[in-house]
Specification:
With 153 residues, the protein is mainly α. Helix content is 86%, strand content 0%. The longest helix has 43 residues, at 108-150.
């Protein structure tokens, strides 16, 4: 249990730290850290429940995308400020490093294995963001139709 709490704290710090690196406004740092933690928790639960890298990264990216839009509307800030720091824990940096290392050492079979994993994870995260945008568009359309429908009376 202590290890899980330490991991959660480090994920939160990674979101805040990346926000500091990219000059995020200070009033957005804490929320960006919690967005990173929320996306990673979704990833963590799914990877431990089903074990699929693609689905875990997809739903983690989807969660980060949807929550970023909601936070952006609440804080009246661009959603990209919360998207990018939220993605930091999901980025396949270790696999990318191992792919480059394997290429440099001449182990091409291993390198292509790591590279395909990087592409799979990055594609899953990107697809999660695309679906998050679609969910947001549908939500806005429903809100617009609901408001428009109530104005007729």
């Amino acid at each position: 249990m202590e290890l899980f709490i330490i991991k959660c704290f480090c994920v939160y710090l990674s979101g805040v730290g990346f926000g500091l690196i990219v000059n995020l406004p200070h009033k957005a740092l804490n929320i960006a850290g919690f967005n990173a933690l929320l996306g990673w928790l979704v990833y963590y639960v799914i990877i431990n429940a089903w074990g699929g890298l693609g689905s875990a990264n997809f739903f983690g990216g989807l969660c980060i995308g949807v929550v970023s839009v909601l936070i952006a509307r609440w804080k009246k800030m661009p959603s990209i400020l919360f998207d990018v720091p939220g993605l930091v824990p999901l980025v396949p940096g270790g696999q990318a490093y191992n792919a480059i290392k394997s290429f440099a050492m001449g182990s091409y079979e291993s390198a292509f294995s790591y590279l395909s994993e990087v592409v799979w994870i990055a594609g899953s995260i990107a697809l999660g963001f695309i679906v998050a945008e679609l969910v947001n568009k549908i939500r806005l359309r429903i809100e617009h139709e609901f408001i428009k429908g109530h104005q007729k009376f």
